[in-house]
Write a structure and sequence with these properties.
The protein has 6 helices and 33 strands. With 523 residues, it is α+β, with helices and mostly antiparallel strands. The strands form 9 sheets. It has a 5-stranded mixed sheet with strand order 17-18-19-20-26, with no helix packed on it. A 4-stranded antiparallel sheet has the order 3-2-1-32, with no helix packed on it. It is elongated and about 130 Å long. Belongs to the WD repeat IPI3/WDR18 family.
């Protein structure tokens, strides 16, 4: 079993007479189409997906750009699973990574928050509208959840970026009050086009925003401040952030994709190579991407030649995927900027969404990734479909209090009690597949280990010789000091004896002279 990465893309027709768009899943290595879902036309930032996990199948949401309808698809069927009637036509949607909440925004700046799932090992689909509020003065272009689903970030046509705390939006005691944002970022001067939330728990994560004002800004939600501003020669349409936050890509309408490194190499005071972070000085810190050496600029620029509508970096951080207005999907190697392949199966359409995920084990028409015996159809039967209830069109306090929903527990095998039968041998095999070195083989690894052992043995021998020399020097010093102290002690004893003898002679002489004096007195 190998966990293969796949590409999920959404397309819309270039003209209204071209027919509906599609949702497609492609293999990232070969580019072949794995599955296709039709009868959908979702605009930019209007597609969201939840992966298959916790013993439940995944699903995809697509808000239609010309009507107040949201289509729901599952990986197990290539047909429309559910059509949800929305309170208004949505301009952006998002789902948190665990599929717990779904948020949608409108052209009037209003945001809706619905429930999709509440327990990690039991799917509860209710569609209850938790909150709805006027978040911006103009259209909301993009919505993003933080990775821990603790905050919702919205970027709008009014050039504002607002951050909303999910616990406050769900608080029953605050339902009659107008929601207030956790913080608002207002340094952009033109409409915001894209938002990406970095790794980490909120508010420790960083937020990256792009705008038509030629800038990409890095924000710190913890301090509610701007860290750095990157200024580009063209308005920025979309951005992609490396999973480790080492660099990001910014694409403009003219087909230029700029690579911006967030770390640079420098020399410390001892002339040693060291890495330091770029920016972080605050509002006054502006880095102009075009004010660089032309040779270095060519290395950091990818020229696509047509409008780039959406981008994403793969899970491994090694490849950049760029969707264009002509329906092409270009795959670039990040290290060399080399074009690896181009997917042209959607030529004539406009790519509005690209994301990467592991190939779903319950994907329709394909072999399941489960290790248990049985056919693909049996595997799909073992993985129940994740239910998605129609979303409420208005807020209903009674429905929230009752909260009557269906509950589906994950299927468990009777023999092992586990959903997946994953042996130790298969685990070791898959681990070796992912961590195998790219350029160094087993023989080279053995040679390097043997040379390292030889180096350590020689080092031990050298240290033992130095230890013997140190012991010899210490013994000589000890004997010299002891002998000197003994000699000094003997000399002091002899001097003291001579002094005592001289004192005795003087006392005898004094006593003899005293006797003679007494004799004279008697006479």
């Amino acid at each position: 079993m190998h966990l293969n990465e796949s590409i999920l893309c959404a397309t819309v027709p270039s003209t209204s007479s071209s027919g509906p768009g599609t949702l497609s899943l492609h293999d990232i290595q070969t580019g072949t189409s794995l599955a296709t879902w039709k009868q959908t036309s979702a605009g930019t930032h209007c597609t969201a997906a939840v992966q298959s996990r916790d013993g439940q199948g995944g699903f995809m949401l697509a808000a239609q750009q010309d009507k107040s309808i949201m289509n729901v698809y599952t990986f197990q069927k290539d047909q429309l699973a559910l059509k949800i009637v929305l309170p208004e036509k949505l301009t952006a949607i998002t789902v948190d990574p665990k599929g717990k909440y779904c948020a949608g925004a409108t052209a009037q700046g209003r945001i809706f928050l619905w429930e999709a799932r509440t327990l990690p090992f039991a799917v509860i689909a209710s569609g209850i509208m938790y909150n709805s509020w006027d978040a911006h003065y103009r259209q909301v272009n993009v919505l993003r959840f933080t990775q821990d689903a603790a905050a919702l970030v919205a970027g709008s046509e009014d050039s504002g970026v607002s951050v909303w705390s999910i616990p406050r939006l769900l608080d029953e005691t605050l339902q009659n009050e107008l929601p207030t944002p956790y913080c608002s970022f207002t340094d952009h001067t033109l409409p915001v086009t894209d938002v990406i939330c970095g790794v980490g728990a909120f508010p420790s994560c960083r937020i990256l925003t792009a705008s038509v004002d030629h800038t990409v800004k890095v924000w710190d939600p913890a301090s509610k401040t701007l860290l750095t501003t990157f200024y580009f020669p063209q308005p920025i349409k979309c951005i992609a952030w490396d999973p480790t936050e080492r660099l990001f890509f910014a694409a403009s309408a003219d087909g230029s994709i700029h690579q911006v490194n967030l770390f640079r190499q420098r020399e410390d005071k001892f002339s040693r190579a060291a890495m330091e972070a770029v920016g972080g000085a605050g509002v006054s810190d502006v880095i102009r991407i075009n004010d660089v050496d032309p040779k270095d600029a060519r290395k950091r620029l990818i020229s696509v030649g047509e409008t780039v509508t959406t981008m994403v970096i793969t899970l491994t951080g090694s490849m950049l995927l760029a969707g264009t207005s002509s329906g092409l999907i270009h795959i670039y190697d990040i290290a060399s900027h080399q074009l690896l392949r181009t997917l042209s199966s959607h030529k004539g359409m406009t790519v509005t969404h690209i994301s990467t995920m592991l190939r779903p084990p319950d994907l329709v028409g394909h072999i399941s990734l489960t290790l248990g015996a049985g056919s693909a159809g049996d595997a799909r039967e073992n993985i129940p479909v994740r239910p998605v209830a129609p979303f409420q069109r208005i807020r209903d306090a009674k429905a929230r209090e009752a909260h009557e929903v269906s509950l589906i527990l994950p299927h468990q095998m009777a023999s092992t009690g586990a959903f997946f039968s994953y042996s130790r041998e298969e685990l070791i095999k898959d681990h070796a597949f992912f961590v195998q070195p790219s350029a160094v083989g087993p023989e080279a690894t053995g040679v390097s280990l043997q040379s390292r052992v030889s180096e350590l043995e020689s080092e031990v021998t050298r240290l033992r010789e130095q230890l013997g020399k140190a012991k010899g020097i210490n013994d000589v010093m000890w004997e010299t000091v002891v002998q000197r102290m003994v000699a000094e002690g003997k000399e002091k004893g002899q001097d003291k004896g001579r002094e005592n003898g001289a004192g005795t002679n003087e006392d005898g002489a004094e006593q003899g002279e005293g006797g003679r004096r007494r004799k004279r007195n008697r006479t």
